[in-house]
Amino acid sequence: MSTPTDTGSETLLDMGVEGDLRRYLRGLGGLAIFLLVWWVGALTTQPSYLVPGPADSARAFIDLFTTSTRIVAPLAGLEFVLPTGLAHLTQTLFHYIPGLLLGAVCGSSLGLAMGWHGVLDDWLRPLVRVLRPIPPLAWVVFAIVWFGIHHTGAAFIVFVGAFWINFYAAYGGVEGVSDDLTDAASTLGVERDLSMLKLVALPSAAPQLLTGFRTSIGRCWMIVVGAELFGAPGVGYEIINAANNLAMDTSVAYMFLISLAFLAMDVGYRLLERRVLAWR
Amino acid sequence: MALSDQSPNAADSGQKIVVDGVSKAYDSVQALSDVSLSVREGEFCCIVGPSGCGKTTLLRTIAGLEDADRGSILVDGDRVTEPGLDRGMVFQEYALFPWRTVRGNIRFGLDRPACDCPDCEQRIRELVDLVGLSEFEDAYPKELSGGMKQRVGIARALAVDPEILLLDEPFGSVDARTRDRLHDELLDIWAETQQTVVFVTHDIDEAVKLADRIVVLDDDPGTVQSTVTVDVDRPRERTSHEFVECVARIRDELGRPTDASQGITKDKYC
After folding, report:
1. Nearest-CB residue to B91 (from A180, A200, A280)
2. pTM of the model
3. pLDDT in tens, A231-260
4. Is A178 in Cβ contact with B95 (below 8 Å)?
5. Candidate from B82, B95, B113 with C-beta closest to A184
6. What secondary structure does DSSP assign to B140-167, as a single string?
7. Superfamily name with CATH number, domain A86-233+260-276
8. Is A182 near chain B, with CB under 8 Å?
């Protein structure tokens, strides 16, 4: 977020570029060493499925995009054909996205309400204390008996994960609203509690809300894969499905696919966040 | 707001603000103890006193941000129970909305009573010009210096055209040169708007520079030590004899033990 304060001197500038280059090379070096260790490990381990090698994994990764698979969209019932990797990623997104968004909206709404309203806070705080520590994946049993372990059940588990992260972000954000700002607003004619929430608390808590949402993007990827290991369709299911056939290289390919999907979302979200929070 | 002629209290004295026997305690600390004072319409009144003498509490009570434990505050004869657009407030630490630009901050109060004034934009532009921030109207508070932030704070409070302007040590964290400029600007604005101003400060020089009348508060607990009418022509020069005399006079008042001033008149001149 910070901008360099002194780039006027040429030597400093050179050092900056040089420093960047050095860091870049070191990063590449670290990756190269990792690949080497991985490769040697794969070569020297028998049976070979214990550690699938980098080359096999890369081939499996390419296969994800050279073969195609038919998937069905939930609710709409539309069928369509996509490259296999994308098809299963899309299946994951069918429950990841609704679970994440609904969980974020509900969680941050409750967090805002409780952080803002002392009485509501008094009523619900003990309940929150009890429910909060339950790991989202523990709800899988109810996801199964209530919804069946398909898109809805997996979405429910993601929902639980997103809910609490966003809840705490909003709760803390609203609690941190400075009294000076609410005082200033009330001398400027803000009378109703709801107006104060909308005009002061919400924008003031926006950085925490957005950071909370970003955290939930990452956490929900972990949760969604966990839910799919129980049988919901998607990349997580494909990891265990491939492993059941001892096609461990395919499992590795899916693991990298998840990593890429997460990175893409995180980078995209950071860019968005920087624009929304230009005032910080 | 034209209730003043119906109220005996305000009618008697012709006062804009009447503080009547106000006491206020936080936990066990007595911040204000039976404070009474009044401010005339259009008067520039400074409240000085040592840190912790309750001057900020007094100002916040006039603003309606705090409730008095005992006593009452009357503005135009009406009892103050909550903040209102008739009393604009400027805060020590600016209290600008960091997510709003300079324009957005100034606009805040105008949006409140869903201002359908067709000249909102015009008014904002005038205020931005008034406080000399035309080049920074789209800047966010983080990009501004302390002095500029407080200019925005003042413009924001002025936007809704309050009859009373309350300032809580507004220039406490700006450098001395900027402070001098802001004093002149504030006096110009006051001359133009004819508002009633209550200005809290611990800086005696600042009070003598600005005020028609200075209310000296004593700590332990917060009581009115005396009020001093500053009878020095404006613009006031810090180096002038009268100015220096007056500063010494106020300093004297501040140093005097409270009981020494009891029984004698509290209204003084310099």
Report:
1. A180
2. 0.82
3. 899 999 999 999 999 999 999 999 999 999
4. yes
5. B95
6. -GGGS-HHHHHHHHHHHHHHT--SEEEE
7. MetI-like (1.10.3720.10)
8. no
